[in-house]
Task: structure prediction
Amino acid sequence: MMKRVLLIAIMPLILVIGCSTESIKDEQLQNVTKVKVGSEGAYKPFSYVDKEGKVTGYDVEVLRVLEKIDPTLSFEFNYAPWSALFLGLDSGRFDMLANQIVKTPEREERYLFNNQNYFVSTSQFITREDEDAINSPKDFKGKIAGCVVGSVHTKILEEWNKENGGVLEIRYYKDLSPLLQDLVNKRIDVHLNDPASIADIIKEQNLKLKILDGRIQESNVYFIFRNEEKSKNIIEKIDAALEKAKEKGEIRELSIKFFGVDQSQ
Result:
């Protein structure tokens, strides 16, 4: 009898708690910000499709962590070649880009960035594995460097070359794959990029390339958005969630998982 009375007494409380939980979930669903994310989708280990057909990569998984921290964020991943990413952002096909993008004065004039970086990109030179005549930038005189149009590493290369007396001839490519093939086939001699991304490509494609010692530059990586009011709300949510993720060590763990070292800050 006593158990029945107790059950009757707590039933309203259970119903209230249950209704409150459902109300919170309903409220969160109503306030969900759906964000269309642009990325290359073939830029391993940052954004790619794995053997099981799952979309993954460091940049992708960072955003998935943010979704868990803030249930009102919902990311939809869409893909395009590097040369089409900013066109997609400008046209409204994407709301933001997550593709290892760093700040430049030109980009900051036109777009918005979030405030919390989620990766630190380094720039180092790559050459052929069997190239004994190239071991450091001291050996670059008269050599040919290949770079991708619009890449921040291209800007860094141009500035470095200018500061070093224009020792390199620079050739421009629309995409990375033909550039690396020309490097292997001795049509160009060096390329500047982030070892975190190039090392994986070299391994996957069995390219006979090597990364030279010495960092030319380090750059913080951010998400990038159209310069409009809607973007400011998304940025505020992303920065708040990213700060919490960093405090919990989740971004650091992701970096170690994908690169073996902490390049998150």
The mean pLDDT is 89.
